[in-house]
Design goal:
Number of helices: 5
Structural class: mainly alpha
Distance between the termini: 41 Å
Radius of gyration: 18 Å
Order of helices and strands: HHHHH
Largest sheet: none
Mean pLDDT: 90
């Protein structure tokens, strides 16, 4: 149990990709907020980003249409959610194929805002890396 706790604290501490992803922080300084709004189901606000990091000034839209690549990440997350929803509905609840399809659609609709935000933050974390000198920078 101690080994698991240490691994978890190492993986989720400041300086790791997972810290940036799960806290929706800037991938370079891990201090500035990535999204303009906290989690919301409002379609106009769910993926609204700051133009630059408020702390280290990293430009989030690195090039025109940068986040189109996040669609590939979104696709992978959607497939994963669909498989899990199908397995849970069939193996645990024993529903029919049509009912499991309905469960998948409902799960995807409910988790869409999380999926959209997660895909964007994962995508930018593939290209921007943590730099300790920016995390201590004061504006």
């Amino acid at each position: 149990m101690q080994k698991y706790t240490n691994l978890r604290s190492i993986m989720l501490k400041k300086g790791s990709k997972l810290y940036s992803i799960f806290n929706a922080k800037c991938p370079r300084c891990h201090e500035g907020d990535f999204f303009e709004y906290k989690f919301t189901f409002n379609p106009n606000k769910v993926t609204k980003l700051h133009e630059h990091c408020p702390k280290c000034n990293l430009k989030y839209m690195m090039e025109p249409s940068f986040f189109y690549g996040a669609m590939y990440v979104n696709y992978g997350l959607t497939v994963g959610i669909s498989i899990v929803a199908f397995l849970i509905s069939v193996l645990i609840f024993g529903v029919t194929l049509l009912q499991s399809f309905a469960a998948i659609v409902i799960a995807l609709l409910v988790l869409a805002p999380i999926n959209l935000r997660l895909s964007r933050i994962i995508w930018i974390n593939m290209f921007a890396h943590y730099d300790e000198k920016f995390s201590k920078k004061e504006k």
